[in-house]
Amino acid sequence: MSESISQSQWQVLPPPDFPQWFIEAVKSYTNGSSGHYAAQLLWQRGIREEKQLAGFLNPDLYQPTSPFDFGQEMKWAVKRLRQAREAGEKVAIWGDFDADGITATSVLWEGLGQFFWEHQQLSYYIPNRLTESHGLNCPGIDQLHASGVKLIVTCDTGSTNLKEIDYAHQLGMDVIITDHHTLPDDRPPVVSIINSRYFAESHPLFHLSGVAVAYKLVEAMYQRLPNIPQQRLEGLLDLVAIGLIADLVELSGDCRYLAQRGIEQLKQQLKTRSRPGIARLLELCKRSGDRPTDISFGLGPRINAVSRIQGDASFCVELLTSKDEKRCEQLALETELANTRRMSLQKDITKQVKDKLAQLDLSTTNVIVLEDPQWPVGVLGLVAGQIAQEYGRPTILLSTVLLSTESSDRESQLGEAGLEDKHSYSIARGSARSVNNIDLYELVNSQAHLLHRFGGHPFAAGLSLPVDNIRLFREAINQQLAQKLGTTGALMMPAIEADLVVKVAELGKALFDELKHLEPCGMGNPVPKLLIKNCWFEQVWNRNSKDFRGRKVQYIKTKFEIWDDSTSMGFPGIWWGHYQDEVPKVRCNAVVELDYNNYEKRPEVRLVAVQPCQENYLQSCLQVSNQLDWILDCRGQELQVEGLTPLMVYECPTSWDELQVWCRRAIQAERQLAIAYPRPKQLSAQDTWKKLLGIAKFLSRTGQWATLVQLQEKLDLSDRTVELGLNALSAIGFEVSHQDCGVQISWHGREWSSDWPLATLRERTNVAGNDAIALRARCANAIFFAAIEEEQFRRQYFYQVPLSTIAAYNIAGYGMVGIKQD
What we know:
Elements: E1 10-12, H1 20-27, H2 36-44, H3 50-57, H4 72-87, E2 90-94, H5 99-111, E3 122-125, H6 138-146, E4 149-154, H7 162-170, E5 174-179, E6 192-195, H8 210-224, H9 237-246, H10 254-272, H11 276-284, H12 292-310, H13 315-321, H14 325-357, E7 368-371, H15 380-391, E8 395-402, H16 407-417, E9 426-433, H17 440-445, E10 453-457, E11 460-466, H18 470-485, E12 496-498, E13 500-501, H19 509-515, E14 530-546, E15 552-563, E16 571-576, E17 588-597, E18 602-612, H20 617-625, E19 631-633, E20 647-649, H21 656-669, E21 673-675, H22 685-702, E22 705-706, H23 708-715, H24 719-731, E23 734-739, E24 742-747, H25 761-768, H26 771-800, H27 803-812
Parallel strand pairs: 1-12, 2-3, 2-4, 4-5, 5-6, 7-8, 13-14, 16-18, 19-21, 20-21
Antiparallel strand pairs: 8-9, 9-11, 10-11, 14-15, 14-17, 15-16, 17-18, 22-24, 23-24
Helix pairs in contact: 1-2, 4-8, 5-8, 5-9, 5-13, 8-9, 9-10, 9-12, 11-14, 12-14, 13-14, 14-15, 22-26, 24-26, 25-26
C-alpha cells in the first residue's frame, strides 16, 4: 500500500542580533564561559529584559506568586479544612495514577498530614487505571463514605465530574477540587475549585500541574496556621519537581521556579537519604537526581509504569513518602519491574501497530484509528504518541473489550464504561495523541455523539466508545480534519528546529555547563537542539537493554561516536529505539541534544534526527584512495608532513578490520593517515591475570562500577579479550554483573587471604574442592591466556608489517568501506 509521509522539515533558527549588554549579563551567570550560545538561546526564547533574565536564571531573584492569588476559592478551601480539623472529621485525598497525580497525592498526604492524623483522620484513594480510569467514580465514593469520610480533596482530577460530585453531596460529603485540567462550562457545586486554568494564559500560575496546585493549597494552610506544621514546607518541593517535569507542562513562571527549587531540594534529600524510595529508584535507573532529565527519563516513566502494568499504583505514594528503607527497597524493585515490563510491551505493541499500518492506504488517512482486543490499555498512550510523531498524524489506539453477559456484573461494567445502552456489550477504550499542533480535544469532541466517555487536552486524551461505532468514528474524524486542513493523507512530519549550529570540537563539558543554565527544560523551553553539519559516525553498535537483574529487555539503543573535520577525536552518543543499521554510513547532517552520562562521568549526545549529505562523497573518497602516499609510516620516526594535519593512529591494532576503520575515517575527513603507534608492551598472560584479579578485588571491596573501556585501558586488552577475562573471573566464583553503564564485580565466597591478588588459578581451584568447577575454571582461564597471547602476537605483527602491505590491503579492501571500484 502507498504511504504519503513527507520527510521531517529541518529548520535552523537564524542567530539573533542581540545587544552586547545582554551577552555580558548572561556571561555573569555562566561561570566564566563566553555565554554566547546561552545568550542566543535565551533571546530566541523571549528572555530579553534584565529583570526577566535574572529571575529565569536564578530562582533566588524570582518572586513566587501567593497561593491566595486563587482568590476566594483558596480561602474557602482553607476555611473548610480548618473546620474539618477542629471537628475531627475524616478527610480523604482523591488522587490520580500518573506521575503528576501520584506526586500530588504525596504532597497532600505529607502536607495535610501536618494538620490531620495520617491513617486516622487522613487517607487517600487512587483509582485503578485498568478498571476505573481517571476522575471520581461512585463505587470509590461509596467506599470512602463507608469509612466515615466527610470531606474529599481531589488532586490532578475532578473538575468535570459533575455527576459524581452530586452523588457525594447526596451522601453528605463535601468536595474540594485541586486540578489543572479542562474546566466545565459552569462552576461545579463544590466547596472550592482551585484550578490553574481559571487564570489568563499570561498569569505565572496558569501552567501549574496538578502537583503544583496541590502544593499551593498546602502553602496556604501553612500561611494560615503557621504554628502547627512540624515539617518545613520546602521539604515537599522535590515531589513537586518530579510531578511538574514528568507531566510535561510549560516550565514558565511559578512552574519553572518550583521546578528549580524542587531539584535543589531533591539533591539535598538524596544527600541525607531522607526519601529512601526515591534514592533507591534513582540507583536502579542509574541516575544521580541532579538533572531534570533524571526525572523525565528516570523517575517519571517508572512511576507511570506501575499503573500501566498493574493498574493499582497506590503503593507509589508510600514509595515516595515512607522513611522505611527496607519497605522502600521492596517497592522500588516492584516499580522497576513494572517499568521493565512496560518497555517490552511498548515495543511489542508498536511493532503490531506498524504491521497494521503497512496494510493500509495512508494516502487517504488523516487520523490513524486502530483497534485490537489484545492490546493492553495501559501502554496505548505511549505507543500512540510514538506513532503520531513517526507518521505525522494524530493517532488513536483502542483496546476492544467484550463485557460480561452475567447480569450481576454487566450493570456495573456498563456503568463504569459510561454506557447507557444496556444492549451493547462490547466497548473500546484507549488513548489519543496529537501532532503538529492539531487540537485533538476539539477534533475528538466533534464526534461526542459517538462516544461514551472522553477527556483530555489538545495534545492527549482518553476515550471509550461502543465497538459498533468505531467505523463511523474513524470516517467522521478523518473527514473533520480533512475539512480543517484542506488535505487528505499528506500531513507533514513534525518540523525539527535546530537552535544552534556547532562543530564536534565544541561539544564537551564547557558547552554542556553553559547550556545547563537553561534547565529545567520542557514545553515552552525545550532542550536545545544542536545541528552538526557534514559529520559521520564510527564505533556504531546496538544492544538490548537489561533490567536490574541482568535480564534482557526488548528495547534497543545504538551507541556511536560522532566525528567531523573540526577534531581528530570522536564524541560519544546514543540513539534510543534505533538499530545500528539505521545509522548512515556516509557523511550526514545530524540534530542532537547534549546530555551528561553520570556513570561514565562525561557529556554525550542524544541523536534526534539524521540526514545524509548531498555532497559528492564518493568522488572525494576515490581521489584519496588513488594516492599511494596517503598512509604515512611514523613508527619510531618524527612526523614531517606538509598541508593538512594527518589523522594519527597511536594504538597498535590487532586486526585488518581495525586498520580499515581508521582508513575510512581518513577518507571521510579527506586527510592522510599516520600510523604512529609505539612498540607494544609485552606483559605475560600470568601477570595480566594477576592484574585483573587485583581490579576484581578492588571493585568487590568498594562496590564501584568499571566501564569496559576502563578495563581495556587498565589491562591493555581488546574488548573481546576483556570479556574472556570476565568469564574466567566468573568461573572461579566472582559474580560479574553487566549493565549499560559498565561492569560490577563482587565476591560472595569465604574471605580471601592478604595475598589473594597474587594467587594462581591452580591454588584457587584446588580450594574449591570440586573437580567439575575446577575444570571449568581451568578451561576459562586457558581460553583467556590464549587470547592474551594471540592479541600480543597480532600487535607485534602490525607493528612490524611493511607500509606497502598496509597500503595494498586497504586499497584492495575499499569495497568494505562503501567505495565501489570499476
